[in-house]
Amino acid sequence: MDVWSSLMDGFATALTPMNLLFAVIGVLLGTAVGVLPGLGPAMTVALLLPVTAALEPTSAFIMFAGIYYGGMFGGSTTSILLNTPGESSSVVTAIEGNKMAKAGRAAQALATAAIGSFIAGTIGTALLAVFAPIVVQFAVSLGAPSYFAIMVLALLAVTAVLGSSRLRGFASLALGLAIGLVGIDSVTGQRRLTFGQPLLVDGLDIVVVAVAIFAVGEALWVAAHLRRTPLHVIPVGRPWMGKKDWGRSWKPWLRGTAFGFPFGALPAGGAEIPTFLSYVTEKRLTKHPEEFGKGAIEGVAGPEAANNAAAAGTMTPLLALGLPTNATAAVMLAAFTSYGIQPGPQLFSSQGPLVWALIASLFIGNFLLLLINLPLAPVWAKLLQLPRPYLYAGILFFATLGAYSVNLQAFDLVILLVLGALGFMMRRFGLPVLPLILGVILGPRIEGQLRKTLQLSAGDPAGLFSEPIAIVVYIIVAIILVWPFIFKLIRRNRPVAAFTGPSEQSARSEAESPAQAGDPTTTTHQKQEKP
Amino acid sequence: MTIVVGYVPTPEGEAALTQAIAEAKKSNETLLVINSSKGDALVDNRYAQGPDIQSIEERLADQGIQHIIKQPVRGHDAAAEVLDAADENDASLIVIGLRRRSPVGKLIMGSVSQRILLEADCPVLAVKAD
């Protein structure tokens, strides 16, 4: 089998002592930033981009993959022991995990999280190895119009589906696209948004943008909210599980994997939605409903498996299509470009050894993570005692060093500070960071596809709809955009007694009142369907 | 007049508290318990949590001692908080717990106890854990 032999070659590359060392560094760093709330794999990869410029691309990506998976593992430790999610994808884990820890079952919670993450990560990576080449085969047949449509879908879906407010999401996306526009127009050679500043002609370096938004913005935000009442970590011994815990965990692990992988692979899927779906499913299917809300092991096992499977899922469109679906993947895409590697369907053929070594390293990283997380979770929790001024001083130092080292221009430091301030303001006003980063990274690529399409059709916009896949994707885009309005309409037309205030009810005509009898059931159904 | 005790949930801190209770009983003064944190780390094991504080509260109430428990989180170190409290309340005595420190450790980390001993305007009673 072709996949099998390629994968074995990948293992051979990934298991060389040097690459193994980078995998270890990656998983250690990843677990550390996963444990610490506020620091994430996206920020870490961005900070390390300039540092790794001198490395072999293969080694660098093996390290980045370790950081990405490590972040998913580490987040659960903080969720369980401190009730503060270390990562956004482990928010759901905190619900049951912390209750378990408070009831003295922290060891079991940590164990089911770590083992579940390992199993889901391994299955997810196997699915990645099987599906990515298939997606590539399909993707090489796609032309520029379809690519353009898929990228539009990715941007809009991330913006519209995630986050609390669509307006904020689109504002953030617009900022990102604007930042991506800075520089010379690739077709006409016109200067865009350079404000007569010659140093802006080459565009903003993606490393500087990512470091500014993630690292500087976060550091300023933490500095503004430095003091908070300290907590205690719930003391725990070595994580372990009894026979009963295994029996109750394995099904949620598999179901979580089934939720996580497809959602991770979808644009706008991310790891948050599948964790939530997994939690809701486990709550409904459990044989111990009385334990939910008081620390049910299923509520930890499912979501933790889901977020790791989602991490593997995210790698599929990244490697097969060059399409990032979350912040870390976006920064990794930027890393491909900074190494001069063209991401997209050609990646598997042009950079085969690198891609397969990367996939193999995901298996290895997953195993290493199980080794360092299962016995050492309480040790990792000690990181939380680190005074944050030291931590963020170090991050700012690295950020400055990295931003300067990209082009050795003092001007980049000015950009770093300006965009860092932007990152701070975005956090202050609740704008999600992800649409901005995707806008900056995908913006120029999406523009390239649009230009290509329009050149092929000699400027006729009808060329955008010249491929069937493109039309299907546009229909999906339309549904995503219009859906909330339809949803609102449906809600308004159905008189829902539980949700409406007295004034609205009195305003309603008498003719609708007979329908109210059957209403409570529809209300509960709606509630269950929409988490 | 007030007795100020710097409390941390460690053997040294417990020893200081026990001693302070004895002193407060003897002189029938108000006992001011200070347990502070800079608040710049997410986890601080030297900052007592709800149940600990409650048990101290009960212990003091049982002994019939007039007491105030304060847990300031203002970014000052523990020495500054204890000295501030002593100044503000015109303390007659400060009670602290000492832990063993090597000279090198003290050189690197500094010493809260040393600062209190040197800068306090009232007598300081330093006790060690059993």
> What is the correct CATH architecture of chain B?
3-Layer(aba) Sandwich
Tertiary shape of chain A: globular
Q: Looking at the chains present, what oligomeric state does this protein adopt?
A: heterodimer
Overall pLDDT level of chain B = 87
Give the termini distance of chain B in whole angstroms.
Answer: 29 Å
Structure keywords:
heterodimer; A: 531 residues; mainly alpha; two-stranded antiparallel sheet; 2 strands; B: 130 residues; alpha/beta; Rossmann fold; 5 helices
Summarize the structure.
The complex is a heterodimer of chains A (531) and B (130). Chain A has helices at residues 2-14, 17-35, 41-51, 57-82, 91-102, 106-139, 144-161, 166-181, 206-224, 243-265, 272-285, 298-321, 327-338, 347-350, 352-373, 377-381, 388-407, 410-428, 434-456, 468-493, 502-507, 519-529; strands at 183-184, 191-192.
Q: How would you characterize this protein structure?
A:
By secondary structure, chain A is mostly helical. Chain A has 22 helices and two strands. Chain A has helices spanning 2-14, 17-35, 41-51, 57-82, 91-102, 106-139, 144-161, 166-181, 206-224, 243-265, 272-285, 298-321, 327-338, 347-350, 352-373, 377-381, 388-407, 410-428, 434-456, 468-493, 502-507, 519-529, and strands at 183-184, 191-192. Chain A has a two-stranded antiparallel ribbon with strand order 1-2. In chain A, a hairpin with a 6-residue loop joins strand 1 (183-184) and strand 2 (191-192). A five-stranded parallel sheet of chain B has the order 3-2-1-4-5, sandwiched between helices. Chain B has 130 residues and is an alpha/beta fold. Chain B contains five helices and five strands, in the order E-H-E-H-E-H-E-H-H-E. Chain B has one domain (2-128): Rossmann fold (3-Layer(aba) Sandwich). Chain B is 43% helix and 21% strand. The mean pLDDT of chain B is 87. Chain B has helices at 11-27, 50-62, 78-88, 103-109, 112-119, and strands at residues 2-6, 30-34, 67-70, 91-98, 124-128. Chain A binds chain B through residues 36-37, 82, 84, 226-233, 381, 384-389, and chain B through 37-45, 47, 49, 73-75.
